[in-house]
Known about the structure:
The strands form five sheets. Strands 1, 2, 3, 6, 7, 8, 9, 18 and 20 form a nine-stranded mixed beta sheet that branches. Strands 10, 12, 16, 17 and 19 form a five-stranded mixed beta sheet that branches. Strands 4-5-21 form a three-stranded antiparallel beta sheet. The chain has helices at residues 7-19, 21-32, 41-57, 122-142, 163-171, 173-180, 232-241, 265-273, 278-285, 296-305, 347-360, 384-393, 413-417, 446-462, and strands at residues 61-65, 73-78, 85-91, 111-113, 116-118, 149-155, 184-187, 192-193, 197-202, 204-214, 221-222, 310-316, 320-321, 324-325, 328-329, 333-341, 367-374, 402-404, 407-410, 425-427, 443-445. Strand 13 and strand 14 form a beta hairpin. 43% of the residues are buried. By secondary structure, it is α+β, with helices and mostly antiparallel strands. The chain is 35% helix and 21% strand. The chain folds into two domains: 4-203 and 378-462, Zn peptidases (Aminopeptidase, 3-Layer(aba) Sandwich), CATH 3.40.630; 206-260 and 306-374, Alpha-Beta Plaits (2-Layer Sandwich), CATH 3.30.70.360.
Amino acid sequence: MIKKERYKSLEQMFQYVDLHFDAMAEELCRIASLPSVEGNDIGLKAARDFIAEKMNQLGLEVSIHDIENGSSLISASDISGKKNTILFYNHYDVVPAGDLSQWATAPFDPVIKDGKLFARGISDNKGCLMARLQALEAIRAVENSLPVNLKFLFEGDEETGSPSMKKFSQMNPEIFKSITAADVCFWENSRTSDSETAWASFGVRGDVEFELRCRPIAFDVHARNGNLCPNAAWRLVWALSTMKDPITERVLIEGFYDRVIPPTDADRLVLDEFPFDEAGAKEHVHVDSFLLGKEGLELKERLYLEPSFTINGLESGEVYREEGARHIVPHSAYAKISCNLVADQKAEDIFRLVRAHLDKHGFQDIELILTDALTAVRTPVNLPITEELKHAASFVYKNPLVIELTMLGPGPASVLRDPWPNLPIIGIGPANPDCGHHSPNENMKLEDYKRNIKYTIAVLYGLEEGDIIGI
């Protein structure tokens, strides 16, 4: 718990944030204006240099880890013999802007409107990244020392599967183990709802993505040959139809659910108390009910505890083009699949099970290509740190802290768990439920941003002496 003798210092730090918030928001706008998108080496380097300069100003020991044919990692630390060591993980790359006609403002020209800052990457993930550095800035302005040992790890290609961090961890295992050694890792983000309620997300979902490609004939032929030549589209549809039950929505791939960890009593309690807005979610996507008619606790269990198997896209032939329709038997077909995984599913295992399923059902000719693999990790919700996070939230927010059983979005948390299997990984951050990650008009509420800076400060002081995992 935050010691009473720290209350005055906390108040001074919060006042510092209030007095300097305009400058902090302007600093956030500067990094958001840098197009650190895959393939834009100038934008990625500019963002990396911006962060490194800020870290140097804060008196951190900074290292840039270059990766051949990849995007550099940034690590930094302030180790001063305190009881607990806190690691902050974030990424400085962002997804492309997408269709510019869907944006109300230029994606890399940050604009503040109605209390929100609009820019690509402002929420995913530069806002949370900068809030953590600015929290350190406020602490430095008031105190001579930190309440905990601090480490930062920022990567530059998370949006494309973190290939550089994976490569670095494999090629430099001892260095990676050293820069990630901590008592807890605060992951890239979480949510703040109604500006008065912070969330903490325990664990990170995994993901496996793959392509199915079918090419039973050499080239398209006239549709009159439909009774003679194998049709790539039909073959792919038949293969896909073996993978999921149309009535129960159950994935039919043998072994798919074998490693799913059943919920504990603590998990069920968290889910029961979790404030999921079913009516609002239905209205948002214009449906009267969700799949299988699930609602209440059953719906939340399906959302947070069950893996998904999703067809992201299908493509075959050319049914219609501006020059007219083509009456053909298509020679090729393609499907993209993603599976959002839960603990303790391993991405590579799922990929192998899909290959075995195709072979077993006579589809040996369909090529299967792995495009991304992120294994899910779970952090227990009933650790001592949970109470510390709740206590810290009471200094900043009107409402009690909301515990989310896991982040729904996947991420490379398993890369940190490889050297540190018991490392708690928990997301906290300023993103709002309508922030528009990966969408046009991505945004962040400035009030949420300010409060998250203060919450980060309170969390660090809450962990000054307390136990984190209780072992």
